[in-house]
């Protein structure tokens, strides 16, 4: 076994046994699918808090939930005052489950593809997309569709993160080492995750079981993380896509909330360094009222927190 893999495995084991993945999401995913659903509702509160802070209206508005998954957050938008909600996702089984669980006539769920939304032109006032854009293979095409379905003056709120975020690869409990994907090759990263997955100290969680409740026998067999799962965009890549879209935009990068990271706030304005120290980004995009938006170069309005 190579030295890098041995070192990463030792670090993973230490952090896992001490913290079990270091995140609230992982703690609840380890408990049960029901508690993970509760976590999704906590995510709703984060989205609505950001919507209030950045002036994205949803109450008495027609809302599109882009990447709705099982519909828990979509229902939350309706319960919190939206006039109607359409949830779309490429995960057909998840959409079917949402359709079966929620029956309010003001709430619809539709299977979508990655390039064309099953939604009419200019039919929604607000689009929410939480923890989705890092998975989108072609963000430019998706933003074009968002422009199409938004009414003039309508807004899109995106919550996402860049590839140099410490836990960007979405490997959850098998890789609690921050920035492991930056410090080690993806081959080493995935081989270590596979070794962790089969270790006797590893505790399986809901992500490790198939739809029939059987534990998946093998995971992390690839040599690299596929780009059709994570697009590996840096913050600057997202900025470029937003700049080239027909939508006006403002970026609100978030610093890490832990005390040791309080000093990193000024770093969010430093071009390369910010990639490592931006905990999350909220982006507000707006469809202009003008039928023919200006093609003049746009500069981002950067607000650090």
Characterization of this structure:
The longest helix is centred in the first third of the chain and has 21 residues, at 33-53. The protein has an eight-stranded mixed beta sheet with strand order 3-2-1-4-5-7-6-8, sandwiched between helices. The protein contains ten helices and eight strands. With 305 residues, the chain is of the alpha/beta class. Helix 2 (24-31) runs antiparallel to helix 3 (33-53) and helix 3 (33-53) packs across helix 4. Residues 292-305 have low confidence and may be disordered. The protein is globular and about 60 Å long.
| Termini separation | 43 Å
Principal-axis shape:
globular
Q: Measured on Cα atoms, how large is the radius of gyration? A: 20 Å
CATH class of the domain at 55-164 and 234-302: Alpha Beta
Helical proportion?
A: 25-40%
Poorly predicted ranges: 292-305
On the 0 to 100 scale, the average pLDDT is 87
Quantity of strands, as a count: 8
CATH overall fold name of the domain at 55-164 and 234-302: Rossmann fold
């Amino acid at each position: 076994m190579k030295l890098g893999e041995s070192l990463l495995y030792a670090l993973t084991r230490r952090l896992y046994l001490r913290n079990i993945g270091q995140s609230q999401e992982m703690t609840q995913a380890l408990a049960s699918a029901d508690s993970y659903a509760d976590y999704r509702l906590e995510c709703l509160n984060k989205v609505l808090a950001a919507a209030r802070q950045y002036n994205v209206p949803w109450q008495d508005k027609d809302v599109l939930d882009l990447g709705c998954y099982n519909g828990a957050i979509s229902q939350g938008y309706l319960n919190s005052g939206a006039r109607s909600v359409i949830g779309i996702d490429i995960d057909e089984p998840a959409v079917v489950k949402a359709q079966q669980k929620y029956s309010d006539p003001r709430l619809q769920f539709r299977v979508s593809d990655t390039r064309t939304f099953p939604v009419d032109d200019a039919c929604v006032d607000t689009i929410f997309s939480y923890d989705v854009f890092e998975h989108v293979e072609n963000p430019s095409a998706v933003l074009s569709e968002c422009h199409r379905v938004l009414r003039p003056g309508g807004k899109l709120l995106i919550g996402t993160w860049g590839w140099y975020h410490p836990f960007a690869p979405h490997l959850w409990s098998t890789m609690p080492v921050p920035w492991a994907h930056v410090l080690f090759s993806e081959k080493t990263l995935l081989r270590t995750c596979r070794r962790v997955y089969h270790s006797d100290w590893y505790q399986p969680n809901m992500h490790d079981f198939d739809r029939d409740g059987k534990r998946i026998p093998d995971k992390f067999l690839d040599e690299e993380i596929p780009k059709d799962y994570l697009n590996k965009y840096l913050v600057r890549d997202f900025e470029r896509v937003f700049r080239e879209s027909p939508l006006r935009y403002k970026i609100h990068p978030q610093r890490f909330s832990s005390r040791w990271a309080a000093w990193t706030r000024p770093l969010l304005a430093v071009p390369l360094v910010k990639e490592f120290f931006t905990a999350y980004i909220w982006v507000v995009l707006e469809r202009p009222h003008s039928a023919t938006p200006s093609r003049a170069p746009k500069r981002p309005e950067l607000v650090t927190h």
